[in-house]
Amino acid sequence: MTRMAGTGILFGTCHVRDTRPSTIAGAAHGGSGRPAAALRWLFACVAFLLLTACTPPAQPGRPELVVFAAASLTDAFAEIGARFGEEHGATVTFNFAGSQTLAGQLTSGAPADVYASANARQMQAAIDAGRIEPADVRDFASNGLVIVIPRDNPASIGSPADLAAPDLKLVLADAAVPAGQYSLQFLDNASGDPAFPPGYGAAVLANVASYEENVRAVLAKVTLGEADAGIVYSSDVTGTQRDQVQLIAIPAAVNVVATYPIAPVADSAQPELARAFADFVVGPTGQAILEKYGFDHVQP
Fold first, then answer.
1. DSSP codes of every residue in 132-164
2. Which conformational region is residue 153 in: left (phi greater than 0), alpha (psi within -120 to 50 degrees), or beta?
């Protein structure tokens, strides 16, 4: 992990694998990788503990709130944190990483006040570990998938079906993180849809050049021209990145909608402030900021 100086933002870069959620997911990687996964899990925890030990304290008189949030929330939550901090006189420190890395840190006892995940599965892991009370969990945003390609489109990709073309270089988020799970679910959905050619999912997976630790890394490889295409959340392509890439929509019939849950951590050192932050995210100001960054409202 690294800390951006003066921002109160921690970026997790550790990588943890777990069991694959579908048949296509199981084919995405060979072998179990359990010894390496165990080491990555250990390094994730050690890195976080070392980093937080070296993190400067909050400003005198200002309480500090530590928020664990999925990497795809980086831009939106940075603005939400700034607004919340101003209104509540608090210093908000973020730990942005893949949801599974954050859940692993929580289950290992890492101190935190709020957890915002990109799926219910990783939130449930924190619940099972006793770090989150089920009654405190609320869904606050949703997000769909989109195919992203470089602006010059060297592989001449014009539709999702073109991801199965031979020799195409595709990058996906790893199946251990929600974005990777959703991407594989999309391929499962498309493989059973008559609008896509037989063997579509397997052909696409054969083109995967790398599995990245989070969805932001997928987008970075595409914007840098290191891949012909990637699958990311629609909310990830904002600001200057829109000028560097093109987007190809995934049909609603096979797309996957990600739902994001948030909850205060049960043993938070700032329980009232943690609950206030979650309230702020689901409230009008937080929802307006999320919409600004491409997130959709959760359907009641």
1. S-GGG-EEEEEEEEEEEEETT-TT---SGGGGG
2. left
Q: Which CATH architecture has domain 2-142+260-292?
A: 3-Layer(aba) Sandwich (3.40)
Q: How far apart are CA 253 and CA 263, in angstroms?
A: 31
**How much of the chain exceeds pLDDT 70, in percent?**
79
Looking at residues 252-263, what average pLDDT do you find?
97
| Confidence bin at 240 (pLDDT 50/70/90) | confident
Q: Is the pLDDT of residue 9 over 90?
A: no
Closest by CA to 294, choosing from 70, 144, 179, 94, is 144
CA pseudo-torsion sign 78, 259, 176, 250: negative
- This prediction has a pTM of 0.76
> For helices 271-282 and 74-88, what crossing angle results, to 10°?
120
The ranges of the chain annotated as CATH 3.40.190.10 are: 2-142+260-292, 144-249
At 223, list the tokens. 């914007």
Return the pLDDT at 61.
75
Q: Work out whether strand 170-173 and strand 229-233 pair parallel, antiparallel, or are unpaired.
A: parallel
How confident is residue 60, by pLDDT bands cut at 50, 70 and 90?
low
CATH of 144-249, one of 3.40.190.290, 3.40.190.10, 2.60.40.10, 3.90.79.10: 3.40.190.10
On whether the CB atoms of residues 252 and 262 are closer than 8 A, the answer is no
- Decide if pLDDT at 53 tops 80: no
